[in-house]
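Title: Comparing notes on inverse folding

I've been comparing how different people in this forum approach sequence design from structure. To keep things fair, I'm posting one structure and asking everyone to reply with a full sequence. Here's the target:
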């Protein structure tokens, strides 16, 4: 039961932290062209690193790791 509560808390905190997606940030900054491309690549890279930290904390592996990482990065980027 405690694990479920902690997991729900982590998911909610991650969702709150990622509420400001890469696409939303780029739109706020009114980026276009090469600046947009560069910003999105860096933002996606940063999101992947943050998601990898969460994967390590949760000790995920295999398909669970792949699935979580894909969704985590997608949510952060705003795809």
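Reply #1:
Here's my take.
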């Amino acid at each position: 039961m405690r694990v479920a509560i902690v997991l729900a808390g982590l998911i909610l905190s991650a969702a709150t932290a990622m509420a400001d997606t890469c696409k939303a940030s780029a739109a706020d900054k009114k980026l276009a062209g090469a600046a947009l491309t560069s910003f999105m690549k860096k933002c996606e890279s940063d999101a992947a690193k943050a998601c990898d930290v969460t994967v390590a904390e949760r000790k995920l592996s295999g398909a669970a790791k792949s699935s979580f990482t894909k969704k985590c990065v997608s949510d952060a980027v705003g795809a």
